[in-house]
Amino acid sequence: MTEQGPLAPLTGEVDVVIVGAGFSGMYMLHRLRALGLRTIVFEAAGDVGGTWYWNRYPGARCDVESMQYSYSFSPELQQEWHWEEIYAPQPEILRYARHVAERFDLRRDIRFETRVEHARFDRARCRWEIVTDRGDRVAARYCVMATGCLSAARVPDFPGAERFRGPTYHTGHWPHEGVDFSGQRVGVIGTGSSAIQAIPVIAAAAARLTVFQRTPNYSIPAHNRPMPPEHEQRWKARYPELRARAWETRNGIVYDLNDQSALAVDAETRRRIYEERWTAGGIPFMAAFNDLIVNPDANETAAAFVREKIRAIVHDPDTAAKLAPTSYPIGTKRICVDSDYFATFNCPHVTLVDVRQAPIVEITESGLRTTAASHEFDALVFATGFDAMTGALNAIAIENDAGESLRDKWAAGPRTYLGLMAAGFPNLFMITGPGSPSVLSNMMVSIEQHVDWIARCLADLGARGAAGIEASTAAEEAWVAHVNEVAHKTLYPAANSWYMGANVPGKPRVFMPYIGGVGVYREICEKVAANGYEGFHLLAPVAAAAE
Ligand code: FAD
Ligand code: N01
Fold first, then answer.
1. Is the separation of the CB atoms in 330 and 297 below 8 Å?
2. Count of CA atoms in the C-beta half-sphere (13 A) of 452
3. What domains does the chain contain, in order, with CATH numbers?
4. Each residue of 440-449: pLDDT tens digit?
5. Residue 35 and residue 107: Cα distance in Å, rounded?
6. Is residue 160 exposed (0-12), middle (13-18) or buried (19+ Cβ within 10 Å)?
7. Which 3 state secondary structure label does DSSP give 320?
């Protein structure tokens, strides 16, 4: 490969191009190097970290405990790294990503501030040609999309958006220098996980905060705290066993699932169990019973409990009623985990505006106008989410040799085999792609599982002398049908969630991740590999594909 200086465009050939240097791309690079494959990573950001590089909004932190939201591939790393808090804040997770980059000397193969715009497969040569916005043009036998499921930030198309005179921010593209809201009148649009984390922190600084809510969210208190030394020691002493246990669970997180129906116990017992889970905090609330995401009546008992908590926390009954979700089952939009979110609405300078009742009409020079009133502020925060799962992939012009683009193939919703590959696009892998457990899981577990599978696959292909691998259309069709079938056995499709593409006008309504469970899915992937990559075709080493 020809490297002509730090900013000179890169040309030539490598074995693998990876797009993205978040946790997926970083670990993929590490594994491919160990296989002796020449690998280059292109990353749009200025450094590693992905999500944790971009999402620097106040209050940003993980909602899977840090002892679990971390790499498991290096026993030394997981023993030596010390997490300061139960749920690490964004700066600490970014520090961790940077530490990993240094520890494994990753940066020397990553081209930062470089966005991949085009990827085209040349079947005759069996090569992907990757083109970036900096003029790089690199051929690679394999291309791995580690572009992230929640990396395409989205600002809704409000009329007049350019007219607002003050600064605007999106939570997913937060300024690196931070934002001082002291004394300001701030508007926040959105009440998803990002907003729920940011609102209490912004409220603490701002003179006035107006929150524009379209759909209320169920949120469970985090009860975050400094890492208790005994908790850390317990995990570190049993890491191999506990990590292996996480691989077998439904969502890649080790916690106690109460394997009982919510309807099998009396009301008093049920209430006690919910209280215990509320006091413990976080995502494990949803494991209070085993049928909360499949049985509407069971689900309603949990939903009613959370609504009751909201009414108990929020003093003004009208605000409490607006904050209490009623239009979808609990857990079918990503459950939120908060620190003092609902209590923030007791502050006299914080106002909740229901934009379902009175929608936003336009952004104005000094704020925004709904069908009911005008609101003025000095700064406006879009906590409006992402074009999830497909957004970053569809932003790249990915084309096969027949001139078909992935975007066109996915016009009616993403279609993949195992969330790893799409038929018609040989040698192109996705990490945590649509059709895999992905965003329904502890992503670190799903990322490591995909990276390990891809690394083994490339090693196997090398050993067999194959030029590559391609998902068969039949296997893809069967997998898409299975993903849908399993989703429709649950309550998930009942919500207008980003899992369903419902947050982006015009996006097809398809449940994108695989809800069969991390453990079940891992077993399927293992079996596929053990059976000679069942459902895939191995590409013969055609003469033209030889170097
Ligand atoms: P990302 O971290 O999104 O990295 C993808 C990278 O690809 C980005 O850096 C992006 O710049 C780059 N990229 C994309 N397109 C291109 C292109 N065309 N050219 C070049 N570069 C490109 N998951 C959990 O399991 N637990 C949590 O607690 C949790 N908290 C989260 C909090 C927030 C605020 C958000 C937004 C997500 C959270 N997630 C959480 C999900 C999170 O995205 C994953 O956990 C994980 O960080 C994803 O890593 P990744 O490398 O796959 O993708
Ligand atoms: O985005 P979201 P997010 N007019 O899509 C509203 C992960 N994450 O960035 O619900 C008015 O959830 C929209 O309203 P509605 C996690 O997986 C994790 O908050 O569509 N409002 C919603 O309220 C999460 O799920 C953490 O009706 C509009 C909000 O904007 C995912 O990232 C923290 C609107 C968007 O919420 C995304 O979370 C942060 C419009 N036109 C993120 N358009 C952790 O805690 C959108 N909205 C670990």
1. no
2. 14
3. 2-152+388-546 (3.50.50.60), 161-230+243-382 (no CATH)
4. 999 999 999 9
5. 18
6. middle
7. helix
Q: List the structure tokens of 423.
A: 């038929």
The whole-chain average pLDDT of the chain stands at 96
CA 436-448-460 angle, 5° bins:
90
Burial class (CB in 10 A: 0-12, 13-18, 19+), 185: buried
* CA atoms in the 13 A half-sphere facing the CB of 469: 27
Q: Report residue 123 as tokens.
A: 């079947």
State whether the beta carbon of 393 lies less than 6 angstroms from ligand 1: no
Exposure string over 456-466, b if 16+ CB within 10 A, otherwise e:
ebbbebeeeeb
What are the Cα distances from residue 347, in Å, to 73, 210, 215, 337, 350? 45, 11, 21, 20, 6
Report the pLDDT value the prediction gives residue 541, as an integer from 0 to 100.
81
Ligand 1 in contact with 443 (CB < 6 A)? Answer: yes
Q: Is the pLDDT confidence value at 275 over 70?
A: yes
User: 412 and 173 in contact (C-beta within 8 Å)?
Assistant: no
Whether this model's pTM surpasses 0.90: yes
Nearest-atom number in ligand 2 for the CA of 337 is 45
Residue 157 alpha carbon, nearest atom of ligand 2: 41
Nearest to 249 by CA among 303, 286, 295, 281: 286
Residue type, 186: V
Backbone φ and ψ for 440, nearest 5 degrees, come out as -90, 5
Question: 3-state class of 90 per DSSP?
Answer: helix
501-505: which pairs have CB atoms within 8 A and are 24 or more residues apart? 501/388, 501/390, 501/413, 503/154, 503/384, 503/385, 503/388, 504/154, 504/387, 504/391, 505/157
Q: Among the atoms of ligand 2, which is closest to the Cα of residue 355?
A: 11
Q: How far is the CA of 62 from the centre of ligand 2 (A)?
A: 15
Kindly identify the ligand whose nearest atom is closest to the C-alpha of 55.
1
- Which residue has a Cα nearest atom 14 of ligand 1? 147
For residues 161 and 217, what is the distance between their CA atoms, to the nearest angstrom?
A: 26
β-pair partners for 121: 128
With H, G, I as helix, E, B as strand and everything else as coil, classify residue 140: strand
Of the candidates 401, 397, 218, 235, the one whose C-alpha atom is nearest the C-alpha of residue 305 is 218
Tokens representing residue 4 in the block: 């002509």
Asked if pLDDT for residue 547 goes beyond 70, the answer is no
Q: Are 284 and 315 spatial neighbours (Cβ–Cβ below 8 Å)?
A: no
Q: What is the pLDDT of residue 251?
A: 95
pLDDT in tens, 227-247: 999 999 999 999 999 999 999
